[in-house]
Amino acid sequence: MQEFSVRRARTTDVPRIQALVAPLVQERILLGKESVVFYEAVQEFRVIEDADGTLIGCGALHVMWEDLGEVRTLAVTADWLGRGVGHALMDRLEGDARELGLSRLFCLTFEVPFFARHGFTDMGNETVDPLVYAELVRSHDEGVAEFLDLARVKPNTLGNTRMVKRLV
C-alpha cells in the first residue's frame, strides 16, 4: 500500500512548497525564488502528500521548446528520502512530458546519481541546432540560460551538472 499520493499543485500549496524547499535553498542545493515566481509556475508543479495530507515532495516540469522540458525544483523532505517519493515525482513529470509531446528532459542538478538512475546523462558540451539556439537565447528564463550554459548564469550553477534524458 502506497503511503503517499501525487497530484497537481494548487495555489494554496505555494507556501508549503516554499517551506519544503527552504532547507535546500539554505544548503545552496536549490536556488531561492520569490513567491510570485512560484505562483506564476504553480500549474507546472506536482506535489506529493503523505496519508495525513502533509506535503513531502514537489517537482515541476517547465516547457522550454517544442521538444524540450526542464525538471525544476524537485525536492523531498529529509525524513521521506529513500522511500520512493522522488521516483514517483519523476515518473509523473515524465508522464506529463510525454503527454505534452516532449522528447527530451533537461535538469541542472547536484543529485547526479538520482537523475542517472532515471536515465539522465551528463550533457557535456552538447549544443542545440543553431536556429533553435538563436530562438532560445532570446528567452528571459534562467533555466533556458542554464540549459544553453550561458556565461551570465555560471556563478549560480557552479558545481551543478547539466543533464539530459531522451524520452522513448
Automatic annotation (TrEMBL):
Residues 4-151 form the N-acetyltransferase domain. InterPro entries: Acyl_CoA_acyltransferase, GNAT_dom, NH2A_AcTrfase. Keywords: Acyltransferase, Transferase. GO terms for cellular component: cytoplasm. Transmembrane segments: none annotated. The keyword Transferase applies. Its EC number is 2.3.1.1. The keyword Chloroplast does not apply. One of its GO terms (molecular function) is L-glutamate N-acetyltransferase activity. It is an enzyme of class 2 (transferase). One of its GO terms (biological process) is L-arginine biosynthetic process. PANTHER family: AMINO-ACID ACETYLTRANSFERASE, AMINO-ACID ACETYLTRANSFERASE NAGS1, CHLOROPLASTIC-RELATED. This is Amino-acid N-acetyltransferase.
